[in-house]
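As a warm-up, study this chain.
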Amino acid sequence: MKKWFNIVLTYPKTVIAIIIAISILLGSGVFKIQFDSSLDAVMPKHDPEYLLNEEVKKTYGNTGKFIIIDVASSDMLQPHILTLVSHLHDDLEEYRRFDEAREMHRLSLLQELSHKKNIHKQLLFDTFADDPVFTRYLQRTLQQLNFEGNTLSKGDIKKIIKNFTKTIEVKRNETIDLIISPFTMKDLRGEKDTLYVRDIVEKDETGKRKVPQTTEEIAAFKKRLTNNPAFEKGIYVKDANGTITDFGILIRLVDQPVYDPLVLEITGIISLYQKDVNIILQGMPITHHEINDYMKTDLERFLPLVMLVMLIVFYLNFRSIRGMVLPFATLALADLWVIGLMGHLGYKLNVIGVALPTLMTAVGSSYSIHILNQYYLEQKTIHRLGKFKGIRLALTHIALTVMLAGLTTFLGFITLATNQVSSIREMGIFSAIGVSFAVVISLTLIPAGLMLLPQQIKTIEFKSKILSFFSNLNVVEHIVKKLAHYAVNHSATVISVLTIALCIALVGLSQVKVESSVHAYFKEGDYVLVSSKIIGEKFGGAYGLNILIDTGKPDGVKDPQFLRFIDSFRGWLIADENIDLNIGRTDAFTDFIKTINLAMHDNDFSFYCIPQTDKDVDSYIDLYGGKDDNDNGLADEFEPYVDRKFTTVNIFARLWEKEGKLLSSNTMDHIINKISTYLNHNLPEGYTYKISGEPKVLVRMSDYIVQGQIMSLALSLVSVFVIVLLIFHNLKAACVSLIPISTAVLLNFGVMGFLGIRLDIATAIIASITIGIGIDDTIHFLNTYRHFYLQGLSQKEIIVQTLHRAGVAIVYTSLALIFGFLVLVISSFKPVIYFSILLATTMITTTLGALLFLPATINLLQLDLSPSKSTSKIWQYFNLGKYFEFESE
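Now compare it with the structure written out below.
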């Protein structure tokens, strides 16, 4: 390390310049960082369930990825309400088929207006008087830009153009595949051998919808809408009196990695209509958009608050400007480097990833505190030897301690790289990289800064007076003395109490459940949960499962017996006795066949059933015809529910909280298992089935969370054992070093089990972090213990002296970590809040482990922790303590 500090202290300006250059290079990646809460962000791409889900999407479209808009009013069949819904429909349609010429014309007119100095707002609207859809777009854009007044400047028009340019790019993506609503669905009517298909809301010769206005037109519209039983609770809802109170607009989306830009546009669209009707948005894209918004909010709140907490910690520790600025700059740069690196490499922040900067700040603070503490302790030496030699001497020894602390924390984080859940794996990898950055910056920026700054003896004296005042309070010292007393005088009692606590914790551990449900992220009363319940009650749910039933032969789907089984199975799925399935509605190919059969029998509802012969089914498919935009030989309306060879049907089962409780991973697993059991016993011979969809993939993710937890926990413990063994050359020392961290981990799981806190993507990383950080306290204790052991003291005296010397430092370091972690308690997400509290709690436990449980065990068992006297070359070669100067203690 002397060579390292020779360079840093000889060329401090160059070192700082290099750090600034690296910061600019890596920091530019911050602007590339994106947020992603989608399934792709967490699941391994090789997983069979994930691959099946992707295959299903290729064949049937992304049936589970839709947005449902609930438009509600006390009476939807009022002319002005119907007109409003038609306008809403027109606004949405613009994102389905991109019209380059139309958008460029609109843009050119706006650009012409931008050349004028000031224009009246009415002129803007008059320019687009023959374009009502765009006029409404301008109204909501001005609303979003918080424009007030009647005069628009050039700058205002340029803002509108900038906004519209972004909208054009969203439209160009053609993210909307299909819009299903009372204004797009068909009315079927049969006469003799002819099936007539017409729009429920007809269009004029120009293609414009003829929105019902008169009493007769509205009555005809209502009759056509209610003729089809499949439409109820699909695209409209009635109250107990039979009044239509809601229209459902279902927006089916093409398969894309990002839906946020479209969601923002749709949110803007509905804002114009909220004053006249009540509108609720739901669907997985809406949920993920809310998550992404919360992630941005969390990141904006976490960083300033944790930095403020650290500034206070630094101030209380050092009482000097340099003692605050240097470590603060170190933490800020470490965060900048790791987030910037993520941005450059194309990695995105997820729900747990937003905690990364806070985590790095809390962990990295201890390195700066160690270095500056040593600097201030060696002030007299620095003054005597001169700045260069004094700082080098002071920091050379502590640097090794910092590097060891960084190494153990690095190993704790890097074990998460074995986890198959992408978000956990990436969190582990970049946390490990962040720790490395924090260590390197601490060992370069702080020494370089100290070398350039003048030595301030007065500040040091002031500091010592302040610290001596606080030390007179004796709070921490008193606690440490108490712990030492119990450790040496009541060792058996301490171990007995610990054993009982661990046995109780084992009971709690057995009750820990795994969670991967997205809805589990949200707090009670959150819009996502409230709207999910409303949409579930009205329309049966906003996400669901694909249940594929394969006949094994082409045209097998046309067999009436098979279709009757499908209908019977659908009835079982939503039956009252199966409320535990939480399925609110199913959609399938049989709806089309039954509706056509109904139409061909003059809407006699006794014929809303599967026809008797396969010839009838075949003829109905031919009679229906339908559009085939992708020329695959199958009507577009059929594509989500049957393959083009009519071999397999897809039943889409919508899920919602019918039992009034969260659809957890365990509940989802129960639903899938119960459906599988039913099909295993009732599916006719020759038929096979598969169950797919995002809920099933998330259930599979629960398995990965458990497997990853076990793997990372085992690797962390093994890593710690090996490191301590190589440092202290004592097998007993390596074994007892596991006591504090193992205790903390087990108690953590016990608390989770008893409090009902589930193991999820956030809480699954606590154990590895606890081990990686917590082992530092244990090594600190053991190293100090070794120091007093070499002085020939008795066992009790060694423990008391060890706690007196190392205990206070361990407590203060832990307090900095605890306060840093508790910042995360303000998160918008329940898992991150639990993560914050549990991590802070485990830091308390590891501190108690190092200061009470560990010394009590050593004292009770009278363990000999002296280094091995073996002369083996292997021991000498792998003597890690030699490199970190522990033997000299």
